[in-house]
DNA sequence: GCGGATCCAGAAAGCGCTCTCATGAACGGG
DNA sequence: CCCGTTCATGAGAGCGCTTTCTGGATCCGC
């Protein structure tokens, strides 16, 4: 009838008593064992094992002021978040890196502006050691809110404007776009159109810039604004066909728009790639390989980007969070990272 | 030159001093203000506001033994995790619900069996109040490990075997499958084939069972094993075409396999839906609406399932975690929830 | 108008841990 | 063989908070 009295988890005290040493010694052993003689250390370890002792994180961070936890903030109102495996892949990279450093991942999903205050409060509350923030919209208030917390931060995707103090990790949107357009040119296409993404996102702007780098004198009629959705891609493609019936290639700012473009081209009786070559961006799984025809696209290593974000953050944490001016070697802030992209050739171009 | 001395966050003590009351009073106000006279309370609140006081969670949980945090454990070796927006959508539902209850979401991504021990340790370490676990494989050790922690838990997807003590939330896989197959029958199809998922996952088994419920006497040649991937779907479809050339309908266990089946059917010169009707499962965005032709499929409300998992867990937390036998009203454990599915008709069937 | 019940506020004891500091043993040099 | 070091260990303070317990004021009924 009487249950076990809820098996109280063993404390440092308990381990110390059982091993016949002081709490301080057990603490030292648990934290790496520096300055404890081997025989004593192994004795303590045995007791730790035996009792199944696990340190109480709350007690520990109360005194160390470290939490071994970082917040991952994903702010995306509805669209894209998780429609697209993008964030998932990124999370995976982050998780791997954090786990390796014995840090926890606290996930904060933000959907509405009204959540911003909550996030700010949480960060200011000092429950985590740092933050990884996904902010893709220009003129977003989130970066400022996060900065106000004073927490070491790394952005995913280039924020706008860029602040020297907070590094970011992004793929080479501009370079990837250039490569895509150059490839279309190398195929002998003379009228390369571009379907942009929503231009309030830096990635969309950068891809457009890359396109312009290669065809600086492109007719404005060859550029149509999309929104990273299949429907937007369809709309843009229809526009383009009307304005520039002679086009023979399309570079879409992402795979989703490209899939929409593909559909419209098919309906219009244009063969891909014979009449019109198409290239997307992202190499989105499982979409890109399953379109009709399979999509040539620019791939970014999303998981690796996540891992880099975490690595960057952890490194700045090691150097002590927000160290004052007293720090001996200023040791430059870790710089932002731009990862390379690679053109994946399939059938559409 | 001299930086501000790192602006120490105000403590309860500071607020108390400033408001001219004791720490205890401030604590009471911060935690709801029960038993404090209105004028005093509002005075304290003003100071809290003024100083931007945020309680230190570590200190609080040290004494309350609550953490206002829930672990979300996603165990999927490579495949599917985040290739598929499934978990992302689920996370969103969970996040919304937890946020509303002021709880944190600690994400634990598990890739290999070797990570299981780490998870077990983390849970046993008592850093979270409960756990939400995604466990779809039969005979997986994870459920046992999680149960060993003694933490209140809710599973996502029916675990196998089911334990009375830990509820789960799943969609009505079997019922959804039945509806799909019945729909095919109602279209006048007489030879309905089935491409299964990997049969070590309960969802795949349940969908197969649903298929069998409707066509109990189906020829074994009409069933081919897939693995929830497009490639598996292609393989299975080819097999089926060879074994049962007369088939006129296919129910694929998920949209990904259905997309593979579609491709093989097209190559084989079978028109969809005229010659062969096809139905998938999941209503996976953005795939299902973009296949050729658009896929008829069984939709499950993933986000809602996530929200329900969180709600179930929070409810059992409110009733006190792992209350002993002394609890006055046993108040039945929250029961598992099976959410309904809905058939989404597009073009393929 | 007095005694007892009621209620609000404060004092103080920890929660489990880390870390500084003091202590004493072991050691080596003169 | 003694003294100054060095180094491993233990004692104890305290991180910021909640919560019991207690004191004192207020209120009610008789």
From TrEMBL, chains A, B:
<keyword id="KW-0805">Transcription regulation</keyword>
<feature type="domain" description="HTH lacI-type">
    <location>
        <begin position="10"/>
        <end position="64"/>
    </location>
</feature>
<protein>
    <submittedName>
        <fullName>LacI family transcriptional regulator</fullName>
    </submittedName>
</protein>
<feature type="region of interest" description="Disordered">
    <location>
        <begin position="321"/>
        <end position="340"/>
    </location>
</feature>
<feature type="domain" description="HTH cro/C1-type">
    <location>
        <begin position="11"/>
        <end position="54"/>
    </location>
</feature>
<dbReference type="Pfam" id="PF13377">
    <property type="entry name" value="Peripla_BP_3"/>
</dbReference>
<dbReference type="GO" id="GO:0003700">
    <property type="term" value="F:DNA-binding transcription factor activity"/>
</dbReference>
<keyword id="KW-0804">Transcription</keyword>
<keyword id="KW-0238">DNA-binding</keyword>
<dbReference type="GO" id="GO:0000976">
    <property type="term" value="F:transcription cis-regulatory region binding"/>
</dbReference>
<dbReference type="InterPro" id="IPR046335">
    <property type="entry name" value="LacI/GalR-like_sensor"/>
</dbReference>
<dbReference type="Pfam" id="PF00356">
    <property type="entry name" value="LacI"/>
</dbReference>
<dbReference type="InterPro" id="IPR010982">
    <property type="entry name" value="Lambda_DNA-bd_dom_sf"/>
</dbReference>
<dbReference type="InterPro" id="IPR000843">
    <property type="entry name" value="HTH_LacI"/>
</dbReference>
<dbReference type="InterPro" id="IPR028082">
    <property type="entry name" value="Peripla_BP_I"/>
</dbReference>
<dbReference type="InterPro" id="IPR001387">
    <property type="entry name" value="Cro/C1-type_HTH"/>
</dbReference>
């Amino acid at each position: 009838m009487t249950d076990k009295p809820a098996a109280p988890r063993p404390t440092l005290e308990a381990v110390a008593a059982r091993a016949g040493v002081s709490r301080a010694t057990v603490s030292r052993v648990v934290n790496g064992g520096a300055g404890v003689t081997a025989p004593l250390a192994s004795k303590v370890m045995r007791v730790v094992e035996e009792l199944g002792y696990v340190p109480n994180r709350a007690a520990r961070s109360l005194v160390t002021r470290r939490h071994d936890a970082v917040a991952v903030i994903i702010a995306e109102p509805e669209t894209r978040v998780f429609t697209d495996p993008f964030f998932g892949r990124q999370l995976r990279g982050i998780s791997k890196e954090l786990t390796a450093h014995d840090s926890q991942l606290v996930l904060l999903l933000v959907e509405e502006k009204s959540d911003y205050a909550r996030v700010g409060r949480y960060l200011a509350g000092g429950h985590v050691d740092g933050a990884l923030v996904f902010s893709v919209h220009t003129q977003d208030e989130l970066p400022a809110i996060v900065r106000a917390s004073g927490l070491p931060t790394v952005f995913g995707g280039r924020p706008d404007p860029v602040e020297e103090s907070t590094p970011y990790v992004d793929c080479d949107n501009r370079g990837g776009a250039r490569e895509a357009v150059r490839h279309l040119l190398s195929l002998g296409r003379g009228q390369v159109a571009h379907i942009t993404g929503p231009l309030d996102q830096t990635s969309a702007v950068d891809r457009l810039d890359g396109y312009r780098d290669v065809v600086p004198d492109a007719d404005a009629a060859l550029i149509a604004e999309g929104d990273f959705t299949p429907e937007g891609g369809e709309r843009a493609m229809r526009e383009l066909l009307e304005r520039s019936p002679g086009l023979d290639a399309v570079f879409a700012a992402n795979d989703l728009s490209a899939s929409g473009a593909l559909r419209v081209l098919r309906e219009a009786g244009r063969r891909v790639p014979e009449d019109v070559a198409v290239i997307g961006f992202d190499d989105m799984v499982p979409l890109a390989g399953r379109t009709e025809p399979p999509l040539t696209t620019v791939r970014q290593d999303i998981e690796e980007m996540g891992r880099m974000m975490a690595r960057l953050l952890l490194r700045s944490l090691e150097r002590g969070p927000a160290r004052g001016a007293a720090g001996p070697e200023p040791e430059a802030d870790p710089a932002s990272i731009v990862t390379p992209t690679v053109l994946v050739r399939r059938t559409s171009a």
